[in-house]
Predict the 3D structure of the following.
Amino acid sequence: MPVGLRVRLGCATPDEFAEKFAVNLARGGFFVRTHELQPVGTCVHFELLLSGGERIVAGKAVVAWNRAAQPDRQIASGMGLRFTELDAPSRALVERLTALKERRGLAPGLLEAAPSAERTGGKAGAPAPPRLARSEIPPNEEPLPAAEKAPPAPAQADLSLPHSVQKLSSGPLALDLGLVREPLTGSRPSRAIIGIDLGTTNSCAAVVKDGKPYVIPSREGHNTVPSIVALNAARRRLVVGHLARAQLLSNPKDTVYGAKRLLGRPFASKQVQQIRAAFAYEVVEGEDGLAAVELGEQRLTLEEVSALILKEVKEVAQNHLGEEVNRAVITVPAYYNERQREAVRRAGALAGLTVERIVNEPTAAALAYAYGRRLRQRILVYDLGGGTFDASILELEDNVYEVVSTGGDTFLGGVDFDNRIVARLLELYERQVGQPFDGDRVALSRLVDAAERTKCALSERQEFRIQLPFLAMKDGKPLTLDATLTRQEVVRLVKPLVDRTIEVCREVLAAKGLDPSALDEVILVGGQSRMPLVHEQVRAFFGKSPSRAVHPDEAVALGAALLAHSLGSAEGLVLIDVLPIAIGVALPDGRVRPVFEKNTPLPSRKQYTLATTQDGQTEFELAVVQGESAMAADCEYLGTVRLDGLPSGPRGMVRIAVGFDLGPECLLTVTAREMRTHRVVSASFAPRPRPAHAIREGARPEGSALVTTIRPLPAAARQKRPASRPSGMLGFFRQFFGRDEVR
């Protein structure tokens, strides 16, 4: 049964209420001091009354946090509630007060209601208790934590600055994202260059000051910003970061998290189809064939979602530094493919950032570990984050950081650990109530939240009790999950995932003929690497305890900041990275012929000389793919390079030099030069498929007949292509890979 709650405030008039609580009310919830704590997720019907008994705000809320969930916090016993539904007068009042305060430039806070709140024992509108004390609590005393396990907030952030909140129009929800749709032109590059760790669970920004890097605190004072974007439909607002995380339990359908896993991936891909059911929000196909999400009635690309997170991080940095910031170094998983890296760069541009460099997360962590120490070591960075895993071997030589081998899994991280625990909780639920789980999205979101809390708690204790009331209904009665999990039980559940990370490490070592004893240090980064089981398995495999020299959550951002700082100085920092995933050309029989092997040092270039194989041949095309499989169907399709309009002539008379250039960020450029006229055209691969027209057509001097076009087509479209090739195509492929490479 929902809990009824009625609170009488120490305000006699609406004006007095507005004066005391308008700033706090904008957060969409309130804190109640009470010893009668309700479990997280409990539905509450509430009324806030003036001192004379007049109702001022009423509606429904959910318990998002309580004192029992964070016993280490030095605050009074109580619980925090988040609005899920307001009646029309209350909603109008909240909107009016919020708009008033935003015009004055004040920060939205959180209403702390009263110690006088008492249960009414049932439905909204139940009779008030006979004695109802007046509130004596200062209205701005204690803000509600953004999440149940939020760390204590060091008072570093300037909370007087407004949060990243976009106002929505009336009528059907149409989001004004506030993103930059055109390339930045005419703007002056900012003095500061920040480093950004765009994470699956949390994002982090850092900057270098007086030669030392440090993490920029969020608006709430935390060192990270949740990588979450949410639509607060009741108040018609789009929120990012901590405000978005606060509604994860109460409104999971309109709360996008874990978007990094889907970024730059085709909707029809096997990976997206396997994981889309794990999200409470809708994963749909975008107009370009890539995965997208729905918020309210609008479809957002994953680039736009990532851009909103980057925009929030950028604004946090600007507020902290007191100056404009439009330049950044952004990190990505080492095992990201070409399409995903370009998607991150595009997201940065949408957020109003010039992305000076894309750098791999393990490489950035190595920078944070070794910068300024003049080390000569061979290290392995074990990066187990919220959604991805990477392992990279680096050789450090003073200020030279050379990656020699890398590997990873972009679908292996803390989310997968949580899912294993959720599966166990569902088994226990079915055993207790005698029927399979049939709860709604909110109930499932509460299970996921409980799984994460259980995982974190069991890193410090041997057992943890989970109590989740009102998960579903049976015969008109609420169903509750009450279970206790032990550390050993969770270890059995997630050990196969840790074993997968060790197998990746073994492959990375084997790629260079190394064994674990050849390493000087093993560096653990990423939030999931804190798990005791991870430490035990790493110690057992490598024969040494992992280093604790870097902060697992902050090392990547700090390394990115150090690299950003070096771009504007003469420090001579040298990064030598490698290609994480092989790139090749699809052959007519469906096989792949590699052009660049995995672990090829960057930058790199290969060039081939081609000649026509048929009289009058005027075109040819190359389908470029990325992956480790020998079959093109199992690889990531990057695009098709098409050359047409070649000069007509006898077989072998028209010769073309085709160059494949890999930059330091693993971004591929293809250049074609017709050798008789020496005219050159080039094209870089776009991050996503485009409409039928060419993505980019190279500049062609007057009179030139050579055109290079890249046409990335969706997988479905490629499957519909006729099996036949242009005249002479098979002979072209034989020629392409039969000739010696021109260097």
